[in-house]
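Here's my example:
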Amino acid sequence: MDYHPWKNRKRDHIKIWGSCNGIILLTTFRAEYIYLWNPYTGECKKIRQVDKNSLPVTHNSMYSIGYNAIAADYQIIHISTSDYSHAKVEVYSLKNPSWRRIQDIPYSISSTMEKFVNGALHWLATRLQTRQIVIIAYVLETEKFIEVPLPDSIDVNPVDLFVFENGTLDAYLCTIIHYKNAAKQQQTKVWIMKDGVTESWMELFHLDGNLLPICCIREGAEIVLHNYQQYFIYDTNDKSLRGGKEISSHMKTTYIESIVTLPI
């Protein structure tokens, strides 16, 4: 990992947007480019960002990355929200290297990072007209957005999403809620969607305090969590919570080493 795209930009601010198949998507504050970086191989591809002159002066922008297995192609998604009626969506694919505006959506993205599950990017979002919190998914194969139903039994808004992986090829979308129990104590509950329908939501685990899962390790036997100050490990077998390592950075993403190469 000796090479990185900001090696000569020590005073620039780095924003990590996410990763997919060992490729990290990031931007720097001053640069006009997006970087796709494989830390394992050192390979880096530079892509010009969307034309900022086409965006309103006041807007919120975010980037995400996913992989279309049918087309064997990576896609970068740019979503910008500038008013209370819609968000603008643009797509850049490595096989079709130019930005395309595909549609407008009536949502504002709430998640800090997307969750890539079963060929779709998932976010928590707010319906701009009703201010209702929902899960939306962008299906890379069809380039369409859909809503994913939340568990019927939860009566508080979720705070984030999480992907549970158990060491097989399967990955499951999870939603995280924070609430107070009858004794007014802070609690965290994680729900998992097993079959992609509302009825398949079930509770995966719950813990004391406000915690956010980050990733699974040891084939799903353990889950890494944080509370913005410290990291913890939750053992799904004996239900124990251990750790407490201090967090040195608030910019986090999951990453798995790979030898994936990027087209020139």
Notes: The longest strand covers residues 171-180.
